[in-house]
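call fold(seq) -> C-alpha cells
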Amino acid sequence: MFDLIIKSANLPDGRKGVDIAVSGGKIAAIEANIAGEARETIDATNRLVSTSFVDPHFHMDATLSLGLPRMNTSGTLLEGIALWGELRPLLTKEALVERALAYCDLAVSQGLLHIRTHVDTSDPRLVTAEAMLEVKERVAPYIDLQLVAFPQDGYYRAADGVKSLERALDMGVDIVGGIPHFERTMQDGAASVEALCRIAADRGLPVDMHCDETDDPMSRHIETLSAQTVRFGLQGRVAGSHLTSMHSMDNYYVSKLIPLMAEAEINVIPNPLINIMLQGRHDTYPKRRGMTRVRELMAAGLNVSFGHDCVMDPWYSMGSGDMLEVGHMAIHVAQMSGVEDKKKIFDALTVNSAKTMGLENYGLSVGCNADLVMLQAEDVLEALRLKPTRLAVIRRGKVIARTEPKISHLQLDGRPETIDMGRNPTNRG
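ret:
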C-alpha cells in the first residue's frame, strides 16, 4: 500500500508515461505501470511532473511592501535602496510576518517549496531577523526557508553594521551575506569580503553575497570573493548573486576570471527579472542587457541557478512567485533559445538551485523527498513557454495545493470546441 501513486507522468529528463509511487514522504518507485494500491491516485494524463521549484535568492522581508511609504518613481536600484531605508524604521514584526506568510501562500500555489531569503541586518533592532526566524519556523511543514544575514547598507558602511550582522547570526540566521560593491570604497568592499568569509569559515556557515550588482566593469569583487573562498576552504559553499558587472567587463579579463570562479566552485545566481529591469539605467542607446554571462559560466562548469529576487517591493513592482516566469525571461535575456539551452534553464530553476541551497534528498529518483509539482504542460519546453497552471503541488507525498486546468471553450463553426493550452498543438499529428 503506497501513500500516493501518480500515473502516466512525463518527466523533465524526457521519460514519458511513467508512474511515480510515494511512501513515507519519499519516492518509492519510478517505472511504468506500477502495481499496487495507494491511498490516493492522481492521473497525470501525460502531463509534466517535476521536482518542486527552488528560489535561491529572494527578499522576503521586503516582499508585498509596494507603495510603503511611497512608490519608487524612478524605478532605479538606488531609489529602491533609499526607499527601503525610509520604510525600515517603520517596520514591525507583525507586519513583516503577515506579508511573508502571504507570499509563502502564493509560493506554494506556484509549486515553489524551497526559498533562500536575504534578511536586512542594517537596522540594529533586527526586527527583520526576528520576523523571518518566526516565519521560517511556521512554514517549515511546507517550505524549506533559508535565511541570509544581509547588511543592505554595507557591512562597514552602516552604523553598527558589523555588530548587527554578528548578532543576527547568533540569533539563528544561518548564512553569511554581504554587499561589497555598496561599501564606500573598493578597498572597503574587498575588506568586507575577507572579513565575511572569515566569519563563515569560523562558524562553519555558507556565504551568499550580493556581488557587483552594477554596470561598472571595474567592480570586480567576484574576483576577491573567489580568491577568499579558496583561501578559507569554502569551495562549493559560496554563492555570488547578481554579478551583473560581468556583462560589461573586458573579455580578456573575464577569460581569466571564470577559471578562478570555477576553481572556487562558486554558485552563480543571476536574477533575470530584476537584472534586466534595473541595469543599464545610465545608458542611452545601445542599452546593456543587464545580466551576467550565463552561457559562458554554464559552459565552464559553474553551477548557475536563477532567483526571483523581488515581488512587489521597493525595487520591483511586478512579480508573481512563479519561477517559470524567471526562466522565461532568462531564455530571452541570455538568448538561450535552443532545445538544450531551455533544458539547462529549467535545471537552473530546480536541480541547480537545490545544489546552491545544499538541499538534501532533493530530486526525482527513488529515495528522494516527494516534493513534486504537476503542470499543465507536456514537457519542460512547453512549461517555459506557457508558464502553465500548477495542477497539483505535493510536499512529502501530500497534495497541498490544487488548481483546475485552464481550458478555453470556443464557439467557432468547424473548429474544436475546446483548447487545452497544456497540449502542444504541434503534437496533434
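The chain has 13 helices and 17 strands.
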